[in-house]
Backbone:
């Protein structure tokens, strides 16, 4: 349904340019219809309601045979029959393809906003003709949308898993451990380091589970189950306020399955329920 590309392609069958559809974004929020689930607006509706005709647009990919563009609006303008919402509020309401499209839209707009000038020489950047990149003509540096890889893990020990409470979480809410991968580090080394720093444990075998775009603002979450190896829980007291082993059928309040942490926990529970 959604085919990403940095440039629009003509229709394979007719050679014609398909219709356009639009995803308006403003201040990190998405324009949502008051009546139907979130998705792109078709061109006729968008022309009728567009309060900022000069707003920058970026091609996102093919959406149901239409060319889909994100439109970067200023200051959350009023659009009749619509309201603005952050993507976090839409978690669990969007299927995977729509979530991916929303994540891409937000990250492309951030990239445009944050790379107007070259970080090396300070000259204004220009859009690359073929790739999703900005180019500094004087010094040749290119800027692609910035992704920040993060590792996220649920540590398992027989029928128990380790979940942690971060001071920023709501009360009694526990989740997987997560942290940014540092420059020069492998994913596996980052996971072992984060686990040891946050809860003082050593983990053994790692089992890759899956990944999720997390555009708040540009993380790519890379999820693993990690087998406990040695050590006693010793929390760092900063990022982690409390961490405990929980049996699969006695879990505290955990993230929903629309998040990768929720999926990691759910998969662990299902493995023990089934056998
Ligand atoms: Zn430059």
Residues:
């Amino acid at each position: 349904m959604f085919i990403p590309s940095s440039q629009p392609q003509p229709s394979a069958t007719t050679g014609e340019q398909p219709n356009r559809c639009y995803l308006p974004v403003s201040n990190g929020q998405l324009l949502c219809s008051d009546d139907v689930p979130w998705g792109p607006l078709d061109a006729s509706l968008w022309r009728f309601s567009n309060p900022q005709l000069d707003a920058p647009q970026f091609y996102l990919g093919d959406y149901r045979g239409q060319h889909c563009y994100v439109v970067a609006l200023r200051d959350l303008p009023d659009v009749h029959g619509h309201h603005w919402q952050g993507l976090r509020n839409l978690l669990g309401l969007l299927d995977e393809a729509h979530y991916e499209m929303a994540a891409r839209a937000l990250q492309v707009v951030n990239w445009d906003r944050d790379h107007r000038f070259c970080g090396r020489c300070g000259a204004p950047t220009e859009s690359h003709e073929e790739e999703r990149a900005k180019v500094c003509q004087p010094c040749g540096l290119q800027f692609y949308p910035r992704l920040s890889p993060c590792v996220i893990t649920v540590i398992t020990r027989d029928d128990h898993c380790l979940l942690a409470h971060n001071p920023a979480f709501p009360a009694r809410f526990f989740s997987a451990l997560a942290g940014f991968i540092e420059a020069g580090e492998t994913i596996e080394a980052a996971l072992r380091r984060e686990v040891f720093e946050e809860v003082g444990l050593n983990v053994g075998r790692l089992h890759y589970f899956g990944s999720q775009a997390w555009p708040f603002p540009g993380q790519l979450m890379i999820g693993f189950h990690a087998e406990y190896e040695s050590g006693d829980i010793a929390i760092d007291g900063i990022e982690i306020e409390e961490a405990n082993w929980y049996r699969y059928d006695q879990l505290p309040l955990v993230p929903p399955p629309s998040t990768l942490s929720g999926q990691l926990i759910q998969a662990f529970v299902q493995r023990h329920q089934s056998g």
About this structure: The chain has a mean pLDDT of 92. The pocket of zinc ion is lined by residues 118, 120-121, 123, 136, 138-139, 141 (CB under 6 Å).
